[in-house]
C-alpha cells in the first residue's frame, strides 16, 4: 500500500488528528481537497455505509488509499435520531446551535431516565477504489441529553451530552480526557491497533 493516504474530508481538525495518529507508521495523510475531490453524496442509511461511500469516492478519484469517518448522535427517545443526519439536523449543515435547539425541543418534558443517548463514530479505510474488504472500526460513547446546554468547549452536540462518570457535559471535559473517552477516540484507538495487520494482508 502507498505510504500516502487521502482523508475523505476537508476538516482541518480531523486532518491534524489522523496525521498525528499515523505519523510513526511513516504514513502521510493528505486532505481530499489537495486532489480537488468534491464531497461524496452521502446516500447511505447507516454510519458504516456513508463512511465507505466517502472513502471509496476519494480512493477512486485519487488512486490512493482513502480513510473516511462518519459520526453522529443517537438519542434513544427519538428512535436513534439525529443519527446520520446529525450535521444537518435543523436543516442547515453545521448549524450547531440550531441542531441543539431542535433536539432539546423534541425532548422537552422527557424524564432524565429516558434521555439516554450515545455518540457513534465509524472509520473506514480502503486500499483502493474497488477494495471489497475495507477496514472498519467503530467507537461509541454512552451518555444522556441534558435539559440545557453546559460548557463552551468541544463542538457539535457536546454542550448537551452529559457524561455520567465525570458529572459534566462533553463540552466541560478537559481535552485529554475527552480524547480518551470519546467515540472518535475509541474508534481511532481500534483503528491504530488494527492497521498494521491490515496493511500487511493482501487486498
Automatic annotation (TrEMBL):
Domain of life: Bacteria
Protein keywords: Hydrolase, Magnesium, Metal-binding, Nucleotide metabolism, Nucleotide-binding
Enzyme type, top EC level: hydrolase
Active site (catalytic residues): 70 (proton acceptor)
SUPFAM superfamilies reported for this sequence: ITPase-like
Chain residues that bind substrate: 9-14, 71, 155-158, 178, 183-184
Free-text cofactor note: Binds 1 Mg(2+) ion per subunit.
GO molecular function: dITP diphosphatase activity; ITP diphosphatase activity; metal ion binding; nucleotide binding; ribonucleoside triphosphate phosphatase activity; XTP diphosphatase activity
Binding-site residues for Mg(2+), renumbered to this chain: 41, 70
Reaction(s) catalysed (UniProt annotation): ITP + H2O = IMP + diphosphate + H(+); dITP + H2O = dIMP + diphosphate + H(+); XTP + H2O = XMP + diphosphate + H(+)
Example of a GO biological process term: nucleotide metabolic process
GO cellular component: cytosol
Enzyme Commission number, as recorded: 3.6.1.66
Cofactor(s), by name: Mg(2+)
General function of this protein: Pyrophosphatase that catalyzes the hydrolysis of nucleoside triphosphates to their monophosphate derivatives, with a high preference for the non-canonical purine nucleotides XTP (xanthosine triphosphate), dITP (deoxyinosine triphosphate) and ITP. Seems to function as a house-cleaning enzyme that removes non-canonical purine nucleotides from the nucleotide pool, thus preventing their incorporation into DNA/RNA and avoiding chromosomal lesions.
Family: Belongs to the HAM1 NTPase family.
Complexes and interactors: Homodimer.
HAMAP family reported for this sequence: Non_canon_purine_NTPase
PANTHER family: INOSINE TRIPHOSPHATE PYROPHOSPHATASE (PTHR11067:SF9), INOSINE TRIPHOSPHATE PYROPHOSPHATASE/HAM1 PROTEIN (PTHR11067)
Protein's recorded name: dITP/XTP pyrophosphatase
Organism: Salinispirillum sp. LH 10-3-1
Gene name linked to the record: rdgB
Amino acid at each position: 500500500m502507498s505510504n500516502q493516504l487521502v482523508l475523505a474530508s476537508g476538516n482541518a481538525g480531523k486532518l491534524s488528528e489522523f496525521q498525528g495518529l499515523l505519523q510513526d507508521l511513516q504514513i502521510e495523510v493528505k486532505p481530499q481537497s489537495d486532489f480537488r475531490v468534491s464531497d461524496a453524496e452521502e446516500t447511505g442509511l447507516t454510519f458504516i455505509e456513508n463512511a465507505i461511500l466517502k472513502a471509496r469516492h476519494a480512493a477512486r478519484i485519487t488512486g490512493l488509499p482513502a480513510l473516511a469517518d462518519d459520526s453522529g448522535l443517537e438519542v434513544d427517545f427519538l428512535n436513534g435520531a439525529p443519527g446520520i443526519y446529525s450535521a444537518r439536523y435543523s436543516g442547515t449543515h453545521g448549524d450547531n446551535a440550531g441542531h441543539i435547539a431542535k433536539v432539546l425541543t423534541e425532548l422537552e418534558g422527557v424524564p432524565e431516565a429516558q434521555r439516554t443517548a450515545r455518540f457513534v463514530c465509524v472509520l473506514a479505510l480502503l486500499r483502493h477504489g474497488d477494495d471489497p474488504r475495507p477496514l472498519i472500526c467503530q467507537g461509541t460513547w454512552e451518555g444522556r441529553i441534558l435539559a440545557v446546554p453546559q460548557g463552551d468547549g468541544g463542538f457539535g452536540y457536546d454542550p448537551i451530552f452529559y457524561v455520567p462518570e465525570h458529572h459534566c457535559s462533553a463540552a466541560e471535559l478537559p481535552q485529554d480526557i475527552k480524547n480518551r473517552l470519546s467515540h472518535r477516540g475509541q474508534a481511532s484507538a481500534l483503528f491504530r491497533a488494527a492497521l498494521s495487520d491490515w496493511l500487511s494482508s493482501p487486498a
